[in-house]
Amino acid sequence: MGLPRNPFWFLPLFLVILTILELTPSSKSATDYTSLVYKGCAKQALSDPTGVYSQALSSLFGTLIAQSSKAKFFKTTSGTGQTTITGLFQCRGDLSNVDCYNCVSKLPILIDKLCGKPIAARIQLLGCYMLYEVAGFAQISGMEMLYKSCSGTNVGGAGFEERRDTALSSLENGISSNSGFYTTSYQSVFVLGQCEGDVGASDCVECVKSAVQRAQVECGSSIAGQIYLHKCFISYSYYPNGVPKRSSSASYSSPSSSGIAFSLLKSEWVSAKYRKNSGYNPRRGSRSGVFGHLLAVCKRFNQEER
């Protein structure tokens, strides 16, 4: 039984494929650098009967967002005297300027939603964080642990902790000479570390060493862990099948299924392979390469049928 001669026989199938493609998330949406890691909200609310603090805070947020399109770290103040508010943002070192801006621009909204208007607040996303403090707010040590996350899955068998510790040792050695941001891997263990932008090289190394020690103690044989101190953070993830390749704006996926984790892996790899074969570019949001290929195939088939 032959195929129908109608030159438009392929349209129903084409529409089905089109619908599937439209519903399939691009690799850009698969990245999760704007996912919430933790919030830190001071217990004391900001007393602001005249609105002077709100005005200073609004000005601060505006400046930080504007700077995030051209810098990975920026610190500034707003207001005067007792109404002075100090604030900063920092993006992860492997984010592009566009991704940094997209990440930072979400933070003021999240601060207001999750904290309201306290005298100090800090919101950490996977790709960036922002904090502000009103003049006179009590300072804490740069080594203070703010948050930790350890995978609920442990690695069976001997040797994992040695591999992880070797990778973390390489992180300690490499971060001082890499502007406070460094990533590396060793035998399927990927590690990442970053210090706050105004921390000196020696203090950065000490902070990362402290975070590494906490990860070793707190996370034990967990296959993934993140430790956030006040002035630095580190993470590690174990990939039994090898550390996946990634784009500069994507983040690695923790093999853990517990709570907060980095994500890339399969969806990102498939998307990269798909783009190569079809001409699909998720950054443009265009699927013309796929459609053009389908139309060309259908057109050629119809010509052969005739």
Structure description:
The protein is built from nine helices and ten strands. The chain has a five-stranded antiparallel sheet with strand order 1-4-5-3-2. Strands 6-9-10-8-7 form a five-stranded antiparallel sheet, covered by helices on one side. The chain has 306 residues and is α+β, with helices and mostly antiparallel strands. Helix 6 packs antiparallel against helix 7. This is Plasmodesmata-located protein 2. InterPro entries: Cell2Cell_Antifungal, GNK2, GNK2_sf. It is a single-pass type I membrane protein.
Tell me the fraction of residues in β-strands, as a range.
15-25%
Q: Could you estimate the helical fraction of the residues in percent?
A: 25-40%
- Main β-sheet, in a few words? 5 strands, antiparallel
Number of DSSP-assigned strands: 10
The radius of gyration over CA amounts to 24 Å
Judged by helices, strands and strand pairing, the structural class is alpha+beta
Global shape: elongated
Low-confidence stretches: 7-30, 247-306
* Strand line-up in the sheet with most strands: 1-4-5-3-2
What is the H/E string? Answer: HHEHEEHHEEEHEEHEEHH
Give the terminus-to-terminus CA distance.
Answer: 16 Å
| Number of helical stretches of at least 4 residues | 9
Provide a compact summary of the structure.
With 306 residues, the chain is α+β, with helices and mostly antiparallel strands. Residues 7-30 and 247-306 have low confidence and may be disordered.
